[in-house]
């Protein structure tokens, strides 16, 4: 029997895997993370506009939908410009770190998001320690041990910046990317709340649709400032030979199309399956990347063991947070705590 929910979450899983692998290849070959970030932000802009168009047709062109997408105050635009700086920095740091560490190590560190979220919410948002269950705290133990195992082992696969110093800088940059990703999640939740000093009260797709053009402009400015345009021209002349030109173009085209489609698939998967299925799919992607890293990159047993422990902790955390689901007294929707953050509704745009 045809199952739309299974189809969408399967598409999300494979598209997420393709984007991660092609990001790694492109950053290692071209070393232009800001230009890659600009292309992803542009693809996100296109995909969210497609979503908005579909929603507009589905709602029969209601006036409220049109006004939400056209009338924004100057204050809202100012908030979005500031937030887009974090948005662009998060993606750029992630893309840059992909060129400095192995895929398995990158995914292991990124899997520490639950532990980082709890730490930020307790320290920055002053949430009480009792707001998390005992099972949630216990799930952080394998996550922490796994990261220690993975990051303290040698990483000879770092070809772009060889040596222990480069490996340490790559690990530090990957940790920074994980912190920025969690901080972006916290602020995204704050922006979408109905009340609050930074609230803009916009749906996820509308919020990302307005953020993306700002992110494209900022990424292009950073690329110009860091000389990526000149570097790209020189790299193209050396890489684009008769033997490699087709492969690079195919990788770039696959990356762009997958990044654009990923946002559409993640939106539908969130709507149909919920965040728990998304978290499990993300951890399955990490397991597959571990197998690829083992057979292709030659990662040692400590990296593999540490990464698997981190993934187990992430799955445990997801199921622990699932227990916090409860009905809202207002409209019967579900209020779910995802990564320690409360939000109302069933639709979120992921994969960004």
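Sequence proposed for the structure above (352 residues):
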């Amino acid at each position: 029997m045809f199952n739309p929910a299974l189809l969408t979450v399967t598409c999300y899983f494979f598209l997420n895997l393709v984007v991660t692998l092609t990001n790694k290849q492109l950053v290692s070959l071209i070393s232009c993370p800001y230009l890659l970030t600009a292309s992803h932000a542009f693809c996100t802009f296109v995909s969210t506009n497609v979503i908005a168009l579909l929603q507009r047709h589905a709602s029969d062109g209601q006036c409220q939908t049109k006004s939400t997408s056209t009338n924004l105050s100057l204050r809202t635009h100012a908030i979005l410009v500031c937030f887009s700086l974090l948005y662009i920095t998060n993606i750029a740091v992630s893309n840059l770190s992909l060129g400095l560490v192995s895929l398995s190590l990158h995914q292991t560190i990124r899997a520490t998001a639950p532990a980082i979220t709890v730490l930020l919410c307790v320290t920055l948002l002053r949430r009480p320690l009792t707001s998390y269950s005992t099972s949630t705290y216990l799930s952080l133990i394998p996550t922490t041990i796994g990261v220690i195992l993975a990051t303290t082992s040698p990483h000879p696969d770092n070809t772009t910046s060889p040596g222990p110093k480069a490996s340490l800088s790559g690990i530090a940059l990957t940790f920074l990317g994980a912190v920025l990703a969690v901080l972006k999640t916290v602020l995204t939740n704050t922006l979408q709340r109905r009340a609050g000093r930074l609230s803009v009260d916009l749906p996820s797709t509308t919020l990302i649709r307005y953020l993306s053009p700002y992110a494209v402009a900022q990424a292009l400015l950073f690329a110009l400032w860091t000389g990526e345009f000149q570097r790209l021209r020189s790299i193209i002349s050396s890489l684009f030979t008769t033997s490699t030109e087709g492969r690079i173009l195919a990788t770039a085209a696959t990356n762009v199309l997958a990044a654009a489609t990923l946002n559409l698939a993640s939106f539908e998967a969130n709507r149909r399956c919920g965040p728990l299925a998304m978290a499990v799919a993300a951890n399955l992607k990490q397991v597959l990347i571990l197998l690829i890293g083992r057979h292709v990159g030659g990662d040692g047993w400590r990296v593999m063991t540490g990464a698997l422990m981190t993934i187990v902790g992430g799955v445990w955390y997801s199921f622990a947070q699932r227990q916090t689901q409860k009905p809202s007294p207002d409209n019967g929707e579900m209020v779910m705590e995802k990564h320690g953050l409360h939000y109302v509704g069933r639709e979120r745009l992921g994969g960004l």
